Amino acid sequence: MFGFALQNFNAVILRGRPHALKANGFSQHCNISHRLQSLKQFNLPPKIITMRHKLLFILGLIFLLSGQILLAQGNEFVYNLKPIDFAHWCLLVGVVFLIPQVVHFKKSVFSTIGVPLTIVGITCMIGMCVLDFIFWSCPTDELRDQFANHLINQPTIWKPFITIGPSSKVFNLGLLILSLNYFKTSKLGVSILLLACLILWHIIPLPFRLVVGYSLTLIAFILLLFDQKLKSLFAKAQ
Questions:
Q1: How many CA atoms lie within 13 Å of 51's alpha carbon, on the beta-carbon side?
Q2: What is the DSSP string of the chain?
Q3: Closest CA to 210 of 125, 135, 141
Q4: Are residues 148 and 32 part of one domain?
Q5: Are residues 70 and 148 in the same domain?
Q6: 0.70 exceeded by the pTM?
Q7: Number of domains making up the chain
Q8: Mean pLDDT lowest for which of 13-27, 124-138, 193-207, 213-227?
Q9: Same domain assignment for residues 101 and 150
């Protein structure tokens, strides 16, 4: 009863103050307009969005390289990292940063093949990182061995997320195919990336192949994605 009476009282008061309703409506209209203007600020020009994707891609490769450098120190070093598994967090953040550029490569035959292949590799690397977080969290080698034996007996997990999926035969092959979009403008970048893949695929045997391979991959994509800007800088320097 009290609530009903209060509603009637408010209705009577508002009927006597139509100007208040109009002012309130005008205020709400202004607030909506202000919010729309704020949202328009996020509609960035395509060139800025493209540049952002490229920079994220390069940053992602830097994270991947950093993770490989940490992993090259050995399992004992990685398992003793505190407070988190920095090595696999670098890999996880790295592959996620690649996604915006990967899905925005120009439409071509190479992208039709390379984009799905690279996305599959990224997905499998994310799964691998999750499993490696569990390995890192195990307090003893005995528990790690038990967990590894359990995964080995689960081929639907072991093969896609440990042996085949995150390997260079999927992920880096996808990147190599995508790089062919730039073959006409940067043959040097494509050649360096091909060399990186040959090292990652054990065709060219080198110590610390993952560190060397991802270092060359980083250099290659800097040349591929920023070819015109690099040429402009060199032209100005001369």
A1: 7
A2: -HHHHHHHHHHHHHHT-HHHHHHHHHHHHHHHHHHHHHHHTT---HHHHHHHHHHHHHHHHHHHHHHHHHHTT-HHHHHT--SS-HHHHHHHHHHHHHHHHHTTSPSSHHHHHHHHHHHHHHHHHHHHHHHHHHHHH-SSHHHHHHHHHHHHT-HHHHIIIIISTTSTTTHHHHHHHHHGGGTTT-HHHHHHHHHHHHHHTTSS--TTHHHHHHHHHHHHHHHHHTHHHHHHHHHHH-
A3: 125
A4: no
A5: yes
A6: yes
A7: 2
A8: 13-27
A9: yes
Do 160 and 90 fall into the same domain?
yes
Domain interval for residue 36: 2-40
Tell me if 93 sits within 8 A of 60, measured CB to CB: yes
**Pair (90, 166) in one structural domain:** yes
pLDDT band at 190 (very low <50, low <70, confident <90, very high): very high
Residues 96 and 9 in one domain: no
